[in-house]
Amino acid sequence: MTATAHAPRLPLTRDRVLQAAIAYADKAGVEALSMRRLGQELGVEAMSLYNHIANKEDLLDGMVDVIVQEIEEPASTGDWKTILRARILSARQALLRHPWASAVMVTRTNMTPTMMRYMDSVIGILRRGGFSIDLAHHTIHVLGSRMLGFAQELYDDTEALEASPEIAAIMLKQMADEYPHITELAMEISHDEGSIVGTGCDDLFEFEFALDLILDGLERSLERT
Amino acid sequence: MTATAHAPRLPLTRDRVLQAAIAYADKAGVEALSMRRLGQELGVEAMSLYNHIANKEDLLDGMVDVIVQEIEEPASTGDWKTILRARILSARQALLRHPWASAVMVTRTNMTPTMMRYMDSVIGILRRGGFSIDLAHHTIHVLGSRMLGFAQELYDDTEALEASPEIAAIMLKQMADEYPHITELAMEISHDEGSIVGTGCDDLFEFEFALDLILDGLERSLERT
DNA sequence: ACCTGAACACCGTTCAAGT
DNA sequence: ACCTGAACACCGTTCAAGT
């Protein structure tokens, strides 16, 4: 079999498998990522992958691990609040590059070394800032997934506006009766978004609003000690 | 609630399907819930279910819907903060009865009428408390999943202590080098938990700490207007 | 109107067999 | 040591056929 027609076959490695999985999830979504398709992507049978990863859970753990490694440590100086804020917003940047990542992180139950290292560094920032062990512990709970740069957004704001404007207008009448407050809020949002190019900016505003509210609250807790 | 295979066969209804699905998830976990198994549970072929639910997504939507309906509206009077706090802690109670519910909620993208009604009532509490539309909107983002009574706990506290005490002690030495802050925190927690019966109480403490920190922050935002 | 059998197009994973 | 073919035990979903 001549190999000239195809690219010279690199040997499979764990890293190459993870990179291919991430690239595929980036372009097709995680829900489309199966062992068979990943094998296909690498020019290999699905079963070969098991020589480099234990199983699909291990694959997903590894993918998340790579993303967390991508979080850059901003060279910020200052108090704990400034440093932590920069670190979390940096994590958010890494997450935004991989839209599937937050959904997968939520399903992880195994701590990976990279994840441990990240959490350890966050706790370190707090401890050096004067947080007691207990307060640092509570902070981890308060931040939750926000520590990694994503929030548990229950539903998308824009969902209600997905229908065509004419249909939306009719639905609005019905909605206004049953859900007056949501309707009121949705209309306000749709006004706002008309005046902005894109919605990414808005999301950042909401994320920072929540983050700062929490950081301010923590600062008060710290001062109270 | 689930009919045994020998009982006289009740006609299948959407509600009976949802109740059976919830009961099965309660006892076996959602990951074990398949259309085939649910059919089995109801003494029926899996394909019959499609006469009452559109597909599995619809099944999960319906299950969540039932849980949200189970959230009791506490008859609390007072300011927005007291009322909202009671409502969220009541939501937490409903969620605790169904350990799988929060994981499923996180994957929902379709708003159901019951979900809309719940969110509308929360926004209503805020608006009556003097929140502007914008601040009410931000509040939804700040609360995120906490509005429904659960937090995005990234990893379980107790995980590090799952191994046997002897092995844990050896691991601790290695861990202390690589992850000093996590180790310090984990040891503090293990001390605390030794003095308490069960951990459910502790989880409530963390939940309330975070909730109160957020509510206090919102109160300050409100006063600033 | 509701339920079923058979079938389709997938999954993750194993294991003996090949190179 | 790594890769493959075949197979196992599952999935969700469809559709024509039965009652």
CATH architecture of the domain at 14-53 in chain A: Orthogonal Bundle
Care to count the β-strands of chain A? 0
Amount of helix of chain A: 55-70%
Distance between the termini of chain A: 73 Å
For the largest interface, the chains and their residue counts are: A-B, 58 and 58 residues
Poorly predicted runs of chain A: 1-8
Which structural class best describes the helix and strand composition of chain A?
Answer: mainly alpha
**CATH topology of the domain at 14-53 in chain A, anyone?**
Arc Repressor Mutant, subunit A
| Run of helices and strands of chain A | HHHHHHHHHH
| Main pleated sheet of chain A | none
Radius of gyration of chain A: 22 Å
CATH superfamily of the domain at 14-53 in chain A: Homeodomain-like
The coarse overall form of chain A would be flat
Number of helices of chain A: 10
Amount of beta strand of chain A:
under 5%
Task: Explain this structure.
The structure is a homodimer of 225-residue chains. Helices cover 63% and strands 0% of the residues of chain A. With 225 residues, chain A is mainly alpha-helical. Chain A has a domain at 14-53: Homeodomain-like (Arc Repressor Mutant, subunit A, Orthogonal Bundle). In chain A, α3 (56-70) packs parallel to α6, α4 (80-96) runs antiparallel to α6 (113-128) and α7 runs antiparallel to α10 (200-223). The longest helix of chain A has 24 residues, at 200-223. The first copy, chain A, is flat and about 60 Å long. The first copy, chain A, starts with 13 loop residues before the first helix and ends with a helix. The relative contact order of chain A is 0.09. The structure holds a DNA duplex (19 and 19 nucleotides).
